[in-house]
Amino acid sequence: MAFAAEVAAVAGRLTTPIWRDKIQRSLSKNKHLANSRYVQLATVRQDGRPANRTVVFRGFLADDDDSLTFVTDSRSRKVQELAVNPAAEVAWYFPQTREQYRIAGNLVVIDAAHVDNALLEARARVWSAMSESGRQQFGWPHPGRPRAAEDPEAWNNPAPGPQDPPLDTFCLVVLRVDEVEQLLLRSNERFRYSKAIKEDGSLAWAEESINP
Amino acid sequence: MAFAAEVAAVAGRLTTPIWRDKIQRSLSKNKHLANSRYVQLATVRQDGRPANRTVVFRGFLADDDDSLTFVTDSRSRKVQELAVNPAAEVAWYFPQTREQYRIAGNLVVIDAAHVDNALLEARARVWSAMSESGRQQFGWPHPGRPRAAEDPEAWNNPAPGPQDPPLDTFCLVVLRVDEVEQLLLRSNERFRYSKAIKEDGSLAWAEESINP
Predict the structure, then answer these.
(1) How many CB atoms lie within 10 A of CB B61?
(2) Which residue from A minimizes the CA distance to B144?
(3) What is the rounded distance in angstroms from the CA atom of residue A194 to the CA atom of residue A205?
(4) Which residue, among B128, B122, B90, B93, has the nearest Cα to B107 in the 3D structure?
(5) pLDDT tens per residue across all 212 residues of chain A
(6) PANTHER family in the record, alphabetically (chains A, B) (predicted)?
(7) Distance from CA of A130 to the nearest CA of B (A)
(8) Which of A53, A93, A146 sits opposite B54 (nearest CB)?
């Protein structure tokens, strides 16, 4: 349970990482834009080629855990791909402030059978916070398969309510962050944040100013 | 010269691929948004992990060549990475029309020493069309290296003019497209376009409607 150990190591900390504070400020300054929470998530397919798609940021995992969360359908191709290679990099561009974050780490997929109760609770919490149309999509026919002349009802099944248990196809996706880069197009500044484990076992983030 | 042969195969065609027409329409409908030409380009690093960054779409290569073009600095890490693994996937989200394109293929980097004259001409054309600040960046200190307390002049060298030859660091990046997916969030439609070589050697694009 390396993940639980890591969570414990940062519990009770007094400060959040600079990069998380920066992202929170960017979100705040760009919140009038409908797509300010849309990010592009890159992973690697089983044939060694990259995959890239837009996903919605669903918040940080907890006050004391800086993992980013997303959701996916258990039937989507990326779930199988992540079982082989969990590495990911998010590109997140904020149009209002003209900033880009690149966020690298490993993804963990939390389905109904996951063993960690805290992560199962996070899955249920994100499910409850989804829009009705967002919840409804997890009852749709198999994503990516040829579209059949099916009963139109297949697309119109009523969505489960926010307090209903998540559908089995609903997965929480957790990005455990190892490195962050911020590029500011207005000021031509660029910062790199790298994770390091300190001698006492706690996490620290090193900040470096690099050439844009 | 597989590339030249491929270009020849499509020369003189009467129609452009449906997906290219669709992207042109999306660009037109979203052109009031300053970042409608910003896309996210995913590649694979030498350690097998994905990389993802925002780049500016610089147009299709030619009327009869549907490759997408971008630019990069020869000193950027991705140039070395692409020499090992040229595979790429672009994610392109259009906020106004709520559409996503995923565009997969292989990247070719065109530097000053490239052997193909047509591609060198394309490199010079894109250089001339760059903004002054865009051209200036190719004279900046080495991207990604620690920022030094250098002479501030290093950042203020005047940009070469649009008619000056491109700086040696200036590379054209050409994405030779193999597959395109379009996802329409408004109508919940999703289309896949796959490249195929017909019996007479010409290119064809197969369209398939798939589940969103």
Answers:
(1) 21
(2) A211
(3) 5
(4) B90
(5) 445 444 444 455 668 999 999 999 999 999 999 899 999 999 999 999 999 999 999 999 999 999 999 999 999 999 999 999 999 999 999 999 999 999 999 999 999 999 999 999 999 999 999 999 999 999 999 999 999 876 777 898 899 999 999 999 999 999 999 999 999 999 999 999 999 888 898 889 999 999 99
(6) AGL049CP (PTHR28243), PYRIDOXAMINE 5'-PHOSPHATE OXIDASE ALR4036 FAMILY FMN-BINDING DOMAIN-CONTAINING PROTEIN (PTHR28243:SF1)
(7) 16
(8) A93
Q: What is the CATH number of the domain that holds B69?
A: 2.30.110.10
Cα-based distances in Å from B17 to A138, B27, B105, B127, B180 = 32, 16, 15, 27, 11
Kindly state whether A133 is in contact with chain B, defined as any CB-CB distance less than 8 angstroms.
no
CB-based contact A147 B211, cutoff 8 Å: yes
- What ipTM, to 2 d.p.? 0.92
Domain containing B114 equals 2-144+167-209
Helix segments in chain B, DSSP class H: 2-10, 18-29, 77-84, 117-129, 132-136
Answer yes or no: is B156 within a domain. Answer: no
Distance of CA B169 to the CA centre of its chain: 17
* Nearest residue in B to A37, CA atom: B95
How would you class A151 by CB atoms within 10 Å of its CB: exposed for 0-12, middle for 13-18, buried for 19 or more?
exposed
**H-state helical runs in chain A:** 2-10, 18-29, 77-84, 117-129, 132-136
Would you say residue B44 lies in a domain?
Answer: yes
The beta-carbon neighbor of B40 closest among A40, A49, A144 is A40
Q: What is the DSSP letter of B163?
A: T
Q: State the nearest Cα–Cα gap between B95 and chain A, in angstroms.
A: 7
Nearest CA in chain B to A137: B212
Q: What's the number of domains chain A is made of? A: 1
The answer to whether the beta carbons of residues A184 and A175 sit under 8 Å apart is no
Domain presence at residue B121:
yes
DSSP string, A159-177: PPPTTSPPPTTEEEEEEEE
Find, among A132, A128, A43, the residue nearest to A91 by Cα: A43
Which chain A residues touch B144 with a CB distance below 8 Å?
A: 190, 210-211
- Chain B nearest-CA residue for A186: B133
